[in-house]
Design a protein that fits this description.
With 398 residues, this protein is mostly helical. The chain folds into 2 domains: 33-137 and 144-183, no CATH class; 187-340, no CATH class. It has helices spanning 3-31, 33-58, 63-113, 120-136, 138-182, 189-227, 233-243, 249-266, 268-297, 302-340, 348-352, 372-377, 379-387.
Length: 398
Amino acid sequence: MPVSIRYAAAWSWRILLIAAAVALLGWVAWQLRVVTFPLVVAVLLAALLAPTVSRLRAAGWRRGAAAGVVLIGFVVVVVGVLTVVGRQVGGQFGRVAQEAQRAISQIQDWLATGPLQLSEAQITNLVDQVSSAIQSNENWLATGALSTAGAAAEVLAGMAIALFALFFFLFDGRNIWHWCLSLAPRSLRTDADGAGQAAFGTLIAYVRSTVLVATFDGVFITIWLLVLSVPLALPLGVLVFFGAFIPLVGAFLSGALAVLVAFVTQGFIVALLVLAGIVAVQQIEAHLFAPLVMGRMVKLHPLAIVLAISAGGLVFGIIGAIVAVPLVAVVHTVGAYFRDDATGPAGTRQAEQPEPREPPGEKSVESSSPSAGRDVADGPERADVETSPMTTRPPPGE
């Protein structure tokens, strides 16, 4: 059997075994997504808020006070933004509803006087067909409403789990991490600690870069909507900001809603201008701003980001698209740590710095000395002392 075939077979079954383990882990995580996804969100939010907690701790605050103030401040900011958006929507909803009715009338006039030249009876028949279709699918719509209610309950439960976990990550994250390290073999704990800290640093960079990208989209699209005097400009801008955290789908849905509001309230020309502005902002963000920010902070190639989002969305939907990029970034960081760091996994130092061998046929003077037997007998204990990552190597000669 050729050596290349044997190597390929050895690699193949190992890769298949690893892929099966990863698939099983992903399946379990998906089945428990009501718990696992809120925990992932809590970790990402902890990466965003942990530096602030660290600054407060450095200023002399206690752990509980620092974590509580940061968490409460975060919740107050989010609830305040949503309250302002709700008031904006409530204040302008009547105008938008009236404009929507006027737009429906204009569409009916266009169907009658435009290129289609539909008669009033045909238009009435079309409306009746739509109404009958809705009535015939009433059971399906009711089922969808019930599933939506169930999804809303899951969202509320997930939010509670995420906030609860976030507080403990901010308050006792170091002890939680030390407990996780205690599950690893003692000889690998130093390497696991270094890889974990590098991975958490990557998460901090990813969350910060995502916030910057979302702010870029929200601010410039809001300015464009204000310039065109589109109603609900601020709520739509906030929706674009939050939509930027959902790759691909969020930007599309928030942009489509802004175009729809512009079409209903301002007409076809303004809707085209809104569409052109949103496309321009998102193209600048996708091809210039996001690669510049995320490429420098997360150190991932844009192609890797696109492929990760596509694969995650294809397998696990929106949740997979959200989790894919930070997961790939963490895996890349951990792999780079073990590959490039001089104090990588156990055995790397010995592999990189082999001890010199004696020339053939020559006998060491030390090997014939009376202490040679003691050195050999004590070899394992000495090796433990010198190569253990948890201890310090003694100076030569001591």
